[in-house]
Amino acid sequence: MICPSCNKFAAYDTSEDPDFDLEAIVNGDSIEVTGTCRVVITSECCGDELREASFNIDHVFSLKDIEASAMSLGQKDKIQPYLTDLNVIEWYAEADMADVNDLKIKGQRTLTVSVPITVQGVLGNEDVASLTFEFEDGIAFADMEELV
Ligand SMILES: [Zn+2]
Asked: Structure pTM?
């Protein structure tokens, strides 16, 4: 593709950090992480955005997952009274940006994205559960939306 800024044939740069639009929702006695991850391929010369793709993320942590994590952190006693009412616990989701840059164009055809996502439950100032899952998806390069 031609880089719009310098009008030269552009080498592809996949090092741009993906954008996340994620939320962790308490749903009864489980936690659902939903949202999107947007990846962009830029021109190596000028950093112009050339192609993009969005991936849908949807993962449910069950009550068993939450209990197992609380147990491993030695916080089972603290989380136990709240297990029937998870709404009292503040949840947030974050992606470990150090591991997010695992973008590859395999044989110049497929873009894969692999992202570990961590959800932590906090009660007061204490972490009572830390739940992680790995999101993995891919898209053919030709199917990525052209931006220029
Ligand atoms: Zn350029």
From this structure: 0.72
